[in-house]
Every structure is written in C-alpha cells, then in structure tokens.
Design a protein that fits this description.
The protein is an alpha/beta fold and about 425 residues long. The chain has 15 helices and 13 strands. It has a domain of about 100 residues. The protein has an eight-stranded mixed sheet with strand order 7-8-9-3-10-11-13-12, with helices on both faces. Strands 2-1-4-6-5 form a five-stranded antiparallel sheet. It binds iron/sulfur cluster. The site of iron/sulfur cluster has 14 residues, from loops. Iron/sulfur cluster binds next to loops.
Length: about 425
C-alpha cells in the first residue's frame, strides 16, 4: 500500500455550512478477523462546525469509538479504514498541498486521508486530539503525569519544527528504555519550558496545586483528576477538534458533571470544536448543538438537537428516546428495544436496513440497502437512513413478525 491512504477520483469536499471545520463523507472501516470481515464503520458522513459540540450517540458496539479512531488514523491491525474522506479546513495546509496533491485539496479543505502518513500523524495534536475512555489505562503508570503532558507539548513543538518527528519517548516504552533511563536519568525528552506549559495546562483543567501534582504518578490521582489530566494532555497541541470518547463513563455522577462543565468551558473559551461520543442521551441533550445517532456502524439519523429529540424519524432513535424514564409522566414499565445489536460480520449483515430485524415498522421496502434521506423538508440538517423519511408506514407492506426467524431457520438448514 502506498504512503497515501486514500485512492480513487476526488469529488472534492462535500457541500456544507460555511463554518464547517470538518466534513466526513462515506467513512468505512473494516476489521479482518478469523471469523470474517467485520464492518465496524459503514459509510459514515457528518460535519463539525467551528466551536460547536457535535454528539455521536449509540449503544456499545455501534461503531462510535472506531469512527473516532478512523478520523485520526489510529485504527490498529486487523482493522483498516477502507474508504471515505475526512476533509479538514486548514488554509495553510491546503496551500502546501494544492499543487502536489490537487485531488486532496478543495478550497481551504484538505482530505487528510489522501495526505502522506507523516503529515497525517503530524495533524494529531494541532488539528485533532482525543480524550480516551479510560484514563487509567491510557496514561503510562511509570511516568509522572506532568512529564506525560510535557511530552505531548514537546512532541507538538518538535512536530511544528519538523513534521516527521512526532514520536514521543513513552511510545513503545519497554525494558530497553527503562534501563537507558535508569543509567542515564538526565537524558530528558522534555524541557523546563514544556514542563511549565504542562503545569499551566493542569491549572487550566482545574487541578489544585498543579506544580506539585505534576510530579505525581497516575495512581496518585483520583479518577476525576486523571480525566482532567487526560484533557490537559489532549489540549497540549491546541487542537481545532477535540474528540472526547465517553469521557465520563468511568466517573461517578458528581465528577461527571464537573468534567462536562470543564469541556463546555474549554469549548466556549477557546472556541475548540468538540466531537462528544457517548451512549448517554442525557449528556447529548445537555452538551451538544447537533447529533448523529449510530447503529450497527452507520449514522442512522442526524440533525440539530431539536430535530433528533423532538421529531425523530428513525424507529431506533424513537426507541432510544422511548426508553428514557420521564419523571413528569412516569410509565409503569420502560419500553425496551427488542432484540440485540447485530454482529457486524459482513456475511450476516445482508443488503437490507440493519435495524430491520428489530424494527416494529419493517416493511418489504426495507429489505434493500437504505440511503440517507432528507427527513424534514424544512430543515437542511435532518437526515435519516430510513424509508419512513420518504413514505408512511403501511400495514399492508409490513413484514410478518417472524420474517427474520424463518430466514434464520432456512439458513440453519442449508
Ligand atoms: S428502513 Fe424500515 S426497517 Fe429500517 S428503520 Fe426504517 S422502517 Fe425500520
């Protein structure tokens, strides 16, 4: 495979809003496992605007985190981004590549998937940065928190000076490096100024006594403090787009609220765009301007918060919203969505709506691949991957309740 990740004829950047900083089109990621090909992300498209919080919501296994990793080129083997475009707005980068890679540039947008690998790696930090789910397993337990943040600062400084030098000292930290560090304790990767910047960042995210805490190890921090430290590290490159992957899942409720407030403050003060990934509709309702609902590797509905929460079209979105307790009108029982998320194995998915086997409104029209339709003529934001965006439900066309059970039996007999 060539150094440049994407191939094929360029269609240019997708149309969008003038404030878009990111336009993603048809992003697809596959995992090639012994059991078969797993379609973890399937033709995902969305945009993110300057200074907004865009939410991606869905249940576990729906492809949210893999979408985020695909954006920043961090999908590991046996996975691979197999298609799609990630158009990022950066006038300087566009100018740099306009003549060298004309297919990768459209106005001020650059398709990062067509850029050389070293450049894509250098974009991690100043363009995109990520706050991972579990800070305890994301930070190195043998290096102080301040040193790890200072490293991120230093990596960004070196990458700015030379885009090829983006590897940090703790990447691949093993026995050899441990021995070298023990024998030569002063062979520092970081400098006094990068450590001072790390302390500033710790202060910015609300760590008390940051100068002292910077010299402590991850196990000396509480869960909430560690998540703040992770956010500080993600801010080291002053990113345009901060991806927060379930940043509050491992925290108790009061600390969750503090972390969400911190992310909101950072977004408002620095104008950073945030992609908020969560399974929690409450977090989406509280934080986001626009939202995409993911199911089985696809964004099945997207729009503004009011589009999706007040006039949902896709039965999966309706099911998610229907399963939230309403304190003003408590139902005797919550309405669960029957069935389970499909396996995402290519051979089991079939060329149909992926939600059809759980959908109470499945019709014969649903037994074919479903495109994204405009869900509301009055809103240019609201789309749904569902035939109900185009037509009414009809009992006459409804699939019999045992349609998929019978197909399973036939497959089992073969
Ligand atoms: S396309 Fe059909 S099966 Fe799929 S969600 Fe819409 S109505 Fe249900």
């Amino acid at each position: 495979m060539s150094d440049t990740a994407a191939a094929g004829e360029s269609r240019g950047a997708p149309a969008g809003h003038p404030d878009d900083v990111l336009r993603v089109r048809d992003l697809s990621t596959r995992f090639f496992t012994e059991e078969g090909q797993v379609n973890a992300v399937e033709s995902v498209s969305f945009t993110v605007r300057d200074g907004e919080i865009f939410g991606i919501v869905g249940e576990s296994g729906s492809g949210k985190s893999v979408t985020a990793l695909s954006l920043i080129d961090l999908v590991d083997s046996p996975g691979r981004v197999t298609g799609g475009e990630v158009w990022y707005r950066d006038a300087d980068l566009a100018e740099e590549f306009r003549d060298r890679l004309p297919d990768a540039v459209d106005g001020e947008f650059v398709d990062t998937r067509r850029l050389p690998k070293g450049v894509r790696r250098a974009l991690r930090g100043p363009a995109f940065s990520m706050v991972f789910q579990d800070p305890m397993s994301s930070l190195n337990p043998s290096v102080t928190v301040g040193e790890q943040i200072a490293e991120a600062v230093e990596v960004q400084r070196r990458a700015t000076a030379n885009p090829r030098r983006t590897r940090s000292r703790t990447q691949g930290y093993g026995m050899g490096k441990l021995i070298a560090d023990t024998l030569l304790p002063n062979r520092g990767f970081t400098s006094e100024s990068s450590m001072n910047r790390a302390i500033e960042l710790l202060e910015q995210v609300g760590i008390p006594d940051p100068a002292e805490r910077a010299h402590e190890y991850p196990h000396q921090f509480s869960g909430g403090m560690l998540q703040r430290a992770m956010i500080a590290q993600a801010l080291a490159g002053e990113p345009d787009v901060l991806i927060a992957d379930e940043p509050t899942t491992a925290l108790d409720v009061t600390i969750q609220a503090q972390i969400l407030n911190l992310l909101r403050d950072l977004q408002e003060q620095a104008g950073t765009s945030v992609v908020m990934i969560t399974h929690d509709l409450g977090v989406i309702a509280r934080m986001c301007n626009r939202v995409g609902v993911m199911y089985a590797g696809q964004i099945v509905e997207r729009g503004t918060l009011s589009d999706v929460f007040e006039t949902p079209v896709h039965p999966y979105t309706q099911g998610l919203l229907g399963s939230i307790p309403d304190l003003d009108d408590p139902a005797p029982r919550l309405q669960p969505i029957e069935g389970n998320v499909p396996s995402l194995l290519d051979e089991e998915m079939g060329g149909r709506c992926f939600f059809a086997d759980r959908c109470p409104k499945a019709m014969t029209d649903c037994l074919q691949p479903i495109s994204e339709y405009d869900a509301d003529p009055g809103s240019d934001e609201h789309t749904a991957r569902c035939v109900l965006a185009e037509r009414e439900f009809s009992e006459a066309d409804a699939l019999p309740p045992d349609h998929f059970d019978r197909n399973e039996e036939v497959r089992g007999d073969e």
